[in-house]
Amino acid sequence: MYTLLQDLRYAVRTLLKKPGFALIVIVTLALGIGANTAVVSIVNAMLFRPRPVAQPERLVELYVGDANNPYQTGAYEDFLIFRDQPEIFNGLAAYSVDQFKLGGAEDVEQVWGEAVSGNYFELLGVNAFKGRTFLPEEDQTPGTHPVAVISHGLWQRRFGSNPEVVGQTITLNHQPLTIIGVAPPQYTGMIRGLAIEVWIPLMMVPRMGPQYGIARLNSRGNSWLFMVGRLRPGATLEQARARFDLLSRQLREAYPEHWREKRDGSNEVSEKFVTVLPESETRIHPQAHSSVYAAIALILVMINLVMLIACMNLAGLLLARALGRRREIAVRLALGAGRVRIVRQLLTESVLLALGAGVAGTLLAMWLTNLLMAFIPALPEGIRLSIDLRLDWRVLAYTFGFSFLVGVFFGLVPALQTSRPDVMASLKEGSEVFTGGYAQSRLRNGLIVAQVALAVLLLTCVGLAARSLRNISPTRLGFDSANLVVAPLTLERQYDRARSQEFYRQLAERTLALPGVRTVSFVDVVPGGLLGRQRSSIGIEGYGPSAGESMEIDNNTIGPGYFKTMNLPVMQGRDFDERDRDGAPCVAVVNESFERRYFADGRALGKHLTKFVSSSVRPSCEIVGVVRDNRLQSLQKEPLPWFAFPLQQSHETRMVMLVQPTGAPESLVPSVRRAIQTLDRNIPVSDVLTLNDTFKPFLFMYRLFGIVVGACGVLAVLLASMGIYGTVSYVVAQRTREIGIRLALGANRQNILGLMIRQGMIRVLYGLGVGLLLALALTRVLASSMFGVDILYGVSANDPLTYVLVSAALLLVTLLACYIPARAATKVDPLVALRYE
User: Cα(483)–Cα(660) distance, rounded to whole angstroms?
Assistant: First the structure.
């Protein structure tokens, strides 16, 4: 211990003698460690941090599905059977996530809430921050206990943290509910990332509107509930899975109409089963695991490549510094110091630097996570994110453990090399005159080449991602939303089929009468929105699905003039119009991909398709139009099959009005809001926005990916430049006497400048060549279908313009990094240089 303290004191004194060197090392490593820690904190928040509930390791979630879609919700009647498993569970709770209108006509806002079983909070071990949670009797009979628990955030935002909030009344979907409690601040619901703001008993769901109804509670075919259970002491996950496998077989026999369905009108039978997963595997929905894990893996690889560049900087700087300490090490060895002792001292210094960088990196990571949250776009429809990015013990342990290992491993090679000098040569007067430089250290040169190569690789990814994101715009996706206003509409329970159709007709007339309006139409799911895809199971005339083929296809419900409003040409047949009213023969429109995929003769017009909804069947619908392919659903490599039904032949209480103005869309937003409020003041209008604004959340993950990749590339170039600058500067300093002798003997200053720059840029060019070869090979990963979408949308992995711009930018930056210290070398006074020690 005494020897260790000696080493620490000596290391501190040594570093304080060269504060510039210590600062460069700490800043360089802190940039890499800080970025790495920020990414790890995001991964930790998404995957590794348990939900803020009691004993989360004892929780499991239940999903009901089939082989194609195993992770679906279950029916309420299934929940009643599942919860009666005392040999497995201490309890089983159910919850459903939905959107509600909070407030009256004057202050209505959209919020996300959960309808939960009476034992929900008790089972999770979540106690109220104020008041209480639900009692079992408040969830026994439909509509008899109008009570609610609100979130801590809603309590602060809407009630000003009023301590007397318990007992007050809130209005949810026009139903008065008494607030009985406030949830603790750390609990925001079971869906990670989505802030739930209100909880109501399951039995209050039928009173929330016509789209809910009593059928949600008494129809086994109505699947809408997530289920979470707590394993009893002694029960294992394997026992729970075995029990529910048996129960699934029993339910398939008892209720074959719901648990053994014929698939899409064919003879193939789809058998349902129950999947039981531990809490650790449900923090992200299991269906999204593959894409999320792939994205995380890619980002972790990139950020660790940045960290590797920072570590190479550390090794390079330590090697350069070793040139100035050869005489010191030689003296210590000549006086009898052991090589192990020398290595330990040098490692102590490198570890001390790395731990200092760890502290600075932790502070940087805290700032970076806050900066990242600032990039999150404004989310419509009452959506609020809840992402806990605090640096908990896992992240801090990772950061400082990682910093320690960096100090050891990347300080070891310089320490070993420094600890074995030629003692006699190093002790000779003037032995350092012509030593050092790039030619004397293959290892240092190799580090510079590797840094530049990795910087080229990451910067190429940045360039390709930037060009791809530029291509992900509304007009480039196959439709024009630059001049559209979007108005979400949610009608109340009193709107039956006839009244809802009349409301849409009147609203369209009023909006068309507004100055500056070109066209108006309606759509069920707005392209590019947060809920940008809707899939339904259908049967197609003349097409027999193969074994295991899913016939769930993207679709929408649209009003007349929709394709004109979206500037999507109808390639064959016609658009929907007034002929397609309620009671007329059912019709449909498909896209070109649908026609190519499902009709061998390539002709869809006049053919029929049938939409299945649970056990009921929609009448056969004739295809009357084929629209041009577009990227309305997602950024798939190939456009997906898609079909649409007319609004006039449907009963939809949730639609979106699309308004195409003649001028700037922003100026039309207030007028559209007033037109809606004139017809029904109970409809929220705060989400009436331009479609470009609603498109931002859809692009958020792509832009976030671009931001992270871009940050990695910029940071890589910065670190590589710092490494080159630091190494060249230190070597120039060590060659001061050599430069002075050259100048005294008549060497031209411009020749010396060229010599220094040339020695630096030769290694840069080597690194550039290696990096371009790596980029050509590895950027194909980005061009692959690892996410099921085009990461490189509209740009090739071998895009020549990107490679030229990356090469030019890197050469310019590294040339500057070599020029600055090289130019300083030409300013040396020969008389001063000859006295340099």
Answer: 6
